Structure formats: structure tokens, C-alpha cells
Amino acid sequence: DAKTTQPTSMDCAEGRAANLPCNHSTISGNEYVYWYRQIHSQGPQYIIHGLKNNETNEMASLIITEDRKSSTLILPHATLRDTAVYYCIVRVLAAGNKLTFGGGTRVLVKP
Amino acid sequence: EPEVTQTPSHQVTQMGQEVILRCVPISNHLYFYWYRQILGQKVEFLVSFYNNEISEKSEIFDDQFSVERPDGSNFTLKIRSTKLEDSAMYFCASSLKSSIRVGYTFGSGTRLTVV
User: Judging by DSSP bridges, how do beta strands A105-110 and A9-13 pair with one another?
Assistant: First the structure.
């Protein structure tokens, strides 16, 4: 799996959009970008994934650059409950593949 | 929304004792996993399980570890002789076999403390 690089931490104001960057410059053509988050030692929670098109669901939006070497997870209106560690993971879309977690970005949403 | 259920939420055991961590995956999922997270460290893959056999395991998953799906609903992780360094959060996860969306669902974890 390609390696990802994320900032260690970031703060965000409640109610504002949170933009979480991720670099994955060695991504292969068949690798997807996945985002998970972990709220205070709970199990990681799936957020969104994409290949090359931008994706949106009820939780977030995923913007992937045209060259696919980086992406941004957008939480449109951050709430205090969005405080968590966010992980950007690159993997092949295939059932049964393990997830390789890096250090992630610790996001603190402040009132 | 379907959940992966793990029991117990917290277990304390003495070094050298056997411990079994239990998980009930989502009912129509076919792939099952165990991960662990030592306090303050990354989430680490331990093992994946499909069709009643291990499909992949990490270096961490040595002979002291075993997994089993004894009755078609539970998925267990056994540590035969616990060490202090086995203290961690252990997460069970399951996933569908699907070419459209293959997201994992994690349980809320079991905190294992070896004393």
C-alpha cells in the first residue's frame, strides 16, 4: 500500500469547515483513498473513500487532486463531536485487505 | 445501523494467564479481523479470517495468538499466555465481500490489562 503523510494535529472552530489534507504521492492506479476516524480510543469509524472523482456522503466530502497524489477530507460544519484522530489510508479495493493505519491527524474542534 | 459487538469491554488478567476476547461481527459479513492499539500508539493489524481460516496475519500474531469462529456468529481471539506487553485495546472488525463498497465496521474494543 502506498504511504500517506498527514499533519500531526490541527484545530478547527465549531461550525466551520475542517479541511484535512493528505499526501499520497506514490499511490498506484488501482489504489483507493480511504478516510477513517477514531474518537477517543473507540474503534475506527469509516468515513468515505474514493478513487479519482470527488465524493460526498452524509459525513464528509473527499476531494482528490487530478494527479491523485493528494486529497482533502472536508467536514463541512465541524461539531465538538468531530474531535478525533483522522486517518488517511490508501489501499486496493478488495475484500479482505488489511488496513494499515498511520499516525493520523488529531483534530480538535473548539467552541 | 448494524454493529460489531465486543465483550468484555475491559478485562484484567494476570501475566501468563490465557484470555479470550469475544466479538460478534455483523451477520452478513464474511471477513473478520482483529487489530490492536497499545496506548498512545498506532492501530495495528493482527489477523484476517475468511471462510474459516486465517487469510493474513502480521508478525505480531505469533504462536501465542489464535482465532476461531466456533459457532457461526462469534469470532474470538485467544492469547494463550499473556505478557505485560499484550496490554492494549483490541478491536474486532468485519467487512462485506463487495466490489462496490468494502468498508470495515469496527467494534468498540476490549481493553486488556495484563498485570
Answer: parallel
